[in-house]
Specification:
single chain; mainly alpha; 0% strand
Length: 401
């Protein structure tokens, strides 16, 4: 019935799923600038703030395979609906939290619900052809980025009305997403099993992929560079309050500035730059820029230096992720591309778990600059590894066997 309604109204299901991803990411982005402040108000130390950040990614890592497999068996739409209900519950818990325990519960529920991104990506695979799939996935990235840009700005604005209000607003976005899915999003006419290959992987496949001589350096770079960037993501709000004395409004614009640069790079520049320079050079530049940005971020109390540092970080991240994934898809065995990309995504998520936990621990025990030095060292290690990568423009590249 829903499919018939969508057909009669000529609603493009790809646009609908992109809209749901965008709204979902707005809700997620709402929380980022205010979580450290809210946690501190509930008497959390800086290390606990890092664990709060890491708990979200940990639940995402655990639940992604289960939601992907369930969507293969039960359908994309039912799993999206259940996950959006869970998301609205998680953000509502944030709004009514009166203790750290409740705040942790809110983040755990929201993190488990956020694993629905694998279902959304599988949906895009279902409604696109092999020729249009790359474009479809690119649009997923753009929806992701735009939601992430607007989310922190909206979150910081509503924080002026009280930090619990941010949770209720995020829950409202999840409910809106749920209603759009219920009313407009049809179940795909066909369901591929690509998501099983990508995220329903047995341990032996992980181990074989990690040992693959053509892939192991690239996978390690992906993990290390994500870890390095996550050190900044966790502690930036605390640093700008403690060292720079920023207000909520200033933090709002700062996070929007970072997100805007990343969107411009990934949506407007990365394709042309990749064709001109190749993935290896973009990864080299990306790791270098991340290292420079991390070293500069806590270096002074001058906001101009901070903005310059964050521009380096945003550009470096904008280069590194897409170039790494592109080269990974070229080096992977042709019949195991999805699985290899799944291993890479798992490593990146693991980096987003370790980065917040270790970064916040270092911030509390070794000083405000220490997470940035730790991340910069990691980025330099990733850079040194990236110098040995094959150039994608080199015809000697062959898919790993």
């Amino acid at each position: 019935m829903v499919q018939e309604t969508a057909k009669k109204s000529r609603v493009n299901p790809l646009l609908l799923i992109l809209l749901t991803i965008f709204i979902d990411l707005v809700g997620f982005g709402l929380i980022i600038p205010v979580l450290p402040i809210y946690a501190r108000q509930l008497h959390a130390d800086d290390q606990t703030v890092g664990l709060l950040m890491a708990s979200y990614s940990l639940m995402q890592l655990i639940f992604t395979p289960y939601l992907g497999r369930l969507s293969d068996k039960m359908g994309r739409r039912p799993i999206l609906i259940v996950s959006l209900i869970a998301s609205s519950i998680g953000y509502t818990l944030w709004g009514v939290s009166t203790s750290l325990l409740m705040l942790f519960l809110a983040r755990l529920v929201a993190g488990a619900a956020s694993a629905n991104i694998s279902v959304a990506q599988a949906y895009v695979t279902d409604v696109t052809t092999p020729e249009t799939r790359a474009k479809g996935m690119g649009l997923v990235g753009a929806a992701f980025g735009l939601g992430f840009v607007l989310g922190p700005a909206i979150g910081s604005f509503f924080a002026d009305f009280g930090l619990p209000m941010v949770g209720f607003i995020a829950a409202g976005f999840s409910v809106l997403d749920l209603l759009l899915t219920l009313w407009l999003l049809p179940e795909p006419e066909r369901r591929t099993q690509n998501t099983s290959q990508k995220i329903g992987l047995d341990p032996a496949f992980y181990w074989t992929t990690l040992r693959n001589p053509d892939l192991k350096a690239l996978l390690l770079i992906y993990f290390i560079s994500t870890f390095a960037f996550s050190n900044m993501e966790t502690t930036l709000v605390m640093l700008t309050v403690d060292q720079y004395g920023f207000s909520n409004t200033m933090i709002r614009w700062l996070l929007t500035y970072i997100g805007f640069i990343i969107v411009v790079v990934q949506a407007g520049l990365i394709g042309r730059l990749n064709r001109r320079f190749g993935e290896k050079r973009l990864i080299n530049i990306g790791c270098s820029f991340i290292a420079i940005g991390l070293l500069l971020t806590p270096a002074t109390r001058d906001p101009r230096v901070l903005c310059t540092a964050l521009a380096f970080l945003a550009i470096g991240s904008g280069f590194n992720g897409p170039a790494n994934q592109s080269l990974m898809s070229k080096l992977a065995p042709t019949d195991k591309i999805g699985g290899t990309m799944g291993v890479g995504q798992s490593l990146a998520t693991f980096g987003r778990i370790l980065g917040p936990a270790l970064g916040a621990f270092a911030y509390q025990h070794f000083g405000h600059s220490s997470p940035y030095w730790l991340g910069a060292v990691a980025a330099v290690v990733a850079l040194s590894l990236s110098l040995g990568l094959p150039d994608s423009t080199d015809r000697s590249i062959k898919p790993a066997g």
